[in-house]
Amino acid sequence: MSADVFRVMLRMEIHAGKREEFERTWLAIGDSVTSHPANLGQWLSRDAEDPGVYYIVSDWESEARFREFETSERHLRHREKLHPYRSAGAMTVMHVVSHLPGTGAARTHEEWEAVR
């Protein structure tokens, strides 16, 4: 991973009773983000202590390319599909300074799911 990577982290609080539907919807529409040529990947995580809180992390080639996506019609449609599940949220943006890959980093998504 290049140190030039721009990372976006969203913290989303999801309405009780809508968490499973939110997860399914996020997965179903995720390609509207990951198919953008500047997107390097995206992760959905659930808070270990508060199951109503999720974090979405996505990596981008650059801040400029992310901002291009952020202001696009494509992003607006994506947000509209997730908005009904959300009760609150926040966005943090950052520049990756360095990256030390772990031994397990070579696993494919399918291998990771099998371990999970």
Walk me through this protein's architecture:
- The longest helix is centred in the N-terminal third of the chain and has 11 residues, at 19-29.
- The chain has one domain: Alpha-Beta Plaits (2-Layer Sandwich).
- The chain has a 4-stranded antiparallel beta sheet with strand order 2-3-1-4.
- It is an alpha+beta fold and 116 residues long.
- Helices cover 34% and strands 30% of the residues.
- It has 5 helices and 4 strands; from the N terminus they run E-H-H-E-E-H-H-E-H.
- The chain starts with 5 loop residues before the first strand and ends with a helix.
- One of its GO terms (molecular function) is monooxygenase activity.
- Residues 6-94 form the ABM domain.
- InterPro entries: ABM_dom, Dimeric_a/b-barrel.
Kindly provide the radius of gyration, computed on alpha-carbon positions and rounded to a whole number of angstroms.
15 Å
Distance between the termini: 24 Å
Beta fraction? 25-35%
CATH class: Alpha Beta
Shape: globular
User: Which blocks of ≥5 consecutive residues have pLDDT under 50?
Assistant: none
Q: What is the H/E order?
A: EHHEEHHEH
Write out the strand line-up for the largest beta sheet, numbering strands in chain order.
2-3-1-4
List how many beta strands DSSP finds.
4
SSE-based structural type: alpha+beta
Say what the CATH topology is. Answer: Alpha-Beta Plaits
| CATH architecture classification name | 2-Layer Sandwich
- Tally of distinct domains: 1
Oligomer: single chain
Helical stretch count? Answer: 5
How would a crystallographer describe the biggest sheet? 4 strands, antiparallel
What is the helical fraction, as a range of percent?
Answer: 25-40%
Overall mean pLDDT: 91
